[in-house]
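Example 9 (inverse folding). The structure is encoded as follows.
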């Protein structure tokens, strides 16, 4: 008897979540039912394209694949056009104009406290020099201010935005969506791709030149917050430490 089966491809996996591809479906497994509920609710509410939910039986949700490819990947050559980056910013602007979701995100004090904890962790674990960490933290403080609340994706990485023919075909990974700062989404989109900020600002379609220091502050926060998470989940944080050095010198 000949048996046919679909191979299982592990797309991403760590202690909290895993994503595997089986045939034409992506199976997302999440240990936190509240986080999964937040993700499903956000995809249902978002006025931008998202993967279709084929079925859901907690702790697993089956999602359809998206056409196209990720806008960019950290550490890989950026092959996307200026127009594609602008389209990603336009999608963010559309999302930010939608009614607020129920999930309440962090406020300025929460971000500041998290950054301080990350700084202590990095220094206590001898991952980076205290003076370097302090320099990056000072840059991050520009972001810790009152901000307007909008519907944010919360992890709007370029790798989570799929494009085809310079248009956005879908956005994945909505588990961190919440009421948040629109500039945080734009910062996450461009962290590691800082040279694309001008394209993103133009595509977003509003004058945010005065807020560039805030975006740079979010870049610094993101760099600090990433290192403890990467190390604790078994990843090599060497590239993130090098990014801290670039951030401190910028």
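The amino acid assigned to each position is listed next.
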């Amino acid at each position: 008897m000949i048996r046919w089966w679909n191979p299982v491809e592990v797309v991403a996996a760590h202690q909290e979540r895993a994503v595997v591809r089986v045939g034409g479906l992506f199976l997302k497994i999440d240990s936190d039912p509240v986080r999964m509920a937040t993700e499903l609710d956000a995809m249902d509410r978002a006025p931008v394209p998202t993967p279709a939910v084929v079925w859901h039986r907690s702790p697993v949700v089956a999602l359809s694949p998206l056409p196209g490819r990720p806008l960019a990947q950290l550490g890989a050559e950026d092959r996307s056009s200026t127009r594609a980056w602008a389209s990603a910013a336009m999608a963010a602007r559309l999302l930010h104009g939608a009614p607020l979701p129920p999930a309440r995100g962090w406020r300025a004090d929460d971000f500041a406290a998290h950054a301080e904890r990350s700084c202590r962790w990095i220094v206590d674990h001898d991952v980076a020099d205290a003076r370097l960490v302090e320099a990056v933290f000072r840059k991050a403080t520009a972001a810790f201010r009152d901000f307007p609340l909008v519907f944010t994706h919360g992890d709007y990485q370029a790798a989570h935005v799929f494009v085809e023919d310079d248009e956005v075909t879908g956005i994945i990974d909505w588990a961190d969506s919440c009421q948040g700062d629109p500039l945080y989404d734009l910062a996450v989109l461009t962290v590691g791709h800082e040279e694309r900020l001008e394209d993103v600002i133009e595509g977003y379609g509003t004058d945010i030149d005065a807020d560039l220091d805030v975006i740079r502050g979010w870049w610094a926060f993101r760099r600090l917050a990433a290192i403890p998470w990467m190390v604790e989940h078994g990843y090599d944080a060497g590239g993130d430490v090098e990014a801290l050095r670039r951030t401190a010198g910028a």
